Amino acid sequence: MDRLASTKIIYLKGVGPVRGKLLEDELGIATFRDLLYTAPRRYIDRRRVYRIRELQEDMPDVQVAGRFLRFDMEGEGAKKRLTGLFTDGQTMMQVVWFNRHKQIAEAYNTSTTYLLLGKPNNFKGTWSMAHPEIEVFDPAKPPEGLRGVYPLTETLRRRGFTLRTIPNLISTIWANTREINDTLPQALLQKYSLMPLKEALHQIHNPDSPQALQLARERLKFEELFYLELHIMRYARARNEKLRGQIFSKVGPFFNKFYSEVLPFELTGAQKRVLREIRQDTRTGAQMNRLLQGDVGSGKTMVAFMSMLLAVDNGCQACMLAPTEILATQHYEAISEWAEKIGLNVRLLTGSTRAKARREIDQGLLSGEINILIGTHAVIEERVQFRNLGMAVIDEQHRFGVAQRARIWGKNEVPPHVLVMTATPIPRTLAMTLYGDLQVSVIDELPPGRKPITTMLRYDSQRMSMWRGVGTELKAGRQAYVVVPLISENEKLSLRSLEEAYEAVCDIFSDYKVARVHGKMKPSEKDYQMQLFASGEAQILVATTVIEVGVNVPNASVMVIENAERFGLSQLHQLRGRVGRGADKSYCILMTHEKINPTTRKRLEIMTSTTDGFLIAEADMHMRGPGDMEGTQQSGLALNLRHASLVTDGQILERAREAAEAVLNGNMTLHKINAAAPSGATAIQLPATDLALLGRELSLRFANDKDWGLIS
Ligand code: ADP
Ligand code: MG
Question: Which of 288, 295, 276 has the alpha carbon at shortest distance from 318?
Answer without folding.
Answer: 288
